[in-house]
Amino acid sequence: MSTPRLLLPRSQRLLSGLRPHQHQPSSHPRRSFISLPPKTISTERRLPYDHQRLYDIIADVDSYVRFLPFCKLSRVTKWTDPVPHPTSTSTSTTNSASSSTSSSPSSPPPRRWPLEADLTTGWAGIEETYTSRLFCIPSLGIVEAVSGDARSEIPLSELQKHGLVDSPTSSSSSNSGSGVFKSLVTRWTVLPADDALRADRFQHPWSDVRLVVKYDFANPLYAALTDAVKDKVVSAMIDAFVQRAESVLKDTRNDPGAAAAR
């Protein structure tokens, strides 16, 4: 005589066949939102001024607070040694807050370039103070400010040619403790315009100025809050630079020789 089978309702039979599923970790973890690559915004202008004079304005980091709309503090804390001629590449450092140097009347005035600066920026209600590593390459028309985990995007061979070294340290990150920016690179480039457009009928030299900002927020919430205004930021910055150039160099437009003199 066979043992009678216990008939269960269909729903119970289905449940009895279920087994707990053990999750197996994937060998290919999904990329987190925080690890998204830095964002890049840029803009450019063509100006009727000598490129070397425009470069001097861009390299004058101490003056940023006077005209850049999102800059609340700009103070150079480290400089290269004075360079007797623009072609010299000596860059041994000194700590100072002033770039004034003496020179003989018969030779071009010595020039030293900023290496580090303390900057405070405010953007869309977010404010942060940090130290930037500065890289001035006059031969390429580049002034680059690098902060946080970012690295200079100037070719290593070019940095070595000018005796520059990009060494991120704790001093190149946020000083406020908020850590708004994980990385920040601001690069100005000013070069002579194409030969056909370098001078107008009054023999004024023309130059192309380009601004590129590459940034990565430590908190993705900041990226979401500022995404709608990011393009307006670089436009406001370069427009402010144009006004600064007009204020400083307006007299050179009436004197073509002054625009070429250094």
How would you characterize the overall build of this protein?
With 262 residues, this protein is α+β, with helices and mostly antiparallel strands. The protein has a single domain (41-99, 109-260), classed as START domain (Alpha-D-Glucose-1,6-Bisphosphate, Chain A, domain 4, 2-Layer Sandwich), CATH 3.30.530. The protein has helices spanning 10-16, 51-59, 64-67, 156-161, 220-226, 230-249, 256-260; strands at residues 39-47, 71-80, 93-95, 114-123, 126-137, 142-148, 181-192, 207-217. Helix 2 crosses helix 6.
Concise account of the structure shown:
The chain has about 260 residues and is α+β, with helices and mostly antiparallel strands.
Percentage of residues in helical conformation = 10-25%
What is the name of the CATH architecture?
2-Layer Sandwich
Main-sheet strand order equals 1-8-7-6-5-4-2-3
Please give the CATH class: Alpha Beta
Q: Into how many domains do the coordinates divide? A: 1
The low-pLDDT segments are 13-21, 25-34, 87-104, 256-262
Q: Overall pLDDT, averaged?
A: 76
Radius of gyration: 28 Å
Characterize the main sheet: 8 strands, antiparallel
Query: Structural class of the helix and strand makeup?
Result: alpha+beta
Query: How are helices and strands ordered from N to C?
Result: HEHHEEEEEHEEHHH
Shape: globular
Using DSSP, what is the number of strands? Answer: 8
Distance between the termini: 115 Å
Number of helices: 7
CATH topology name: Alpha-D-Glucose-1,6-Bisphosphate, Chain A, domain 4
Q: Name the CATH superfamily classification.
A: START domain
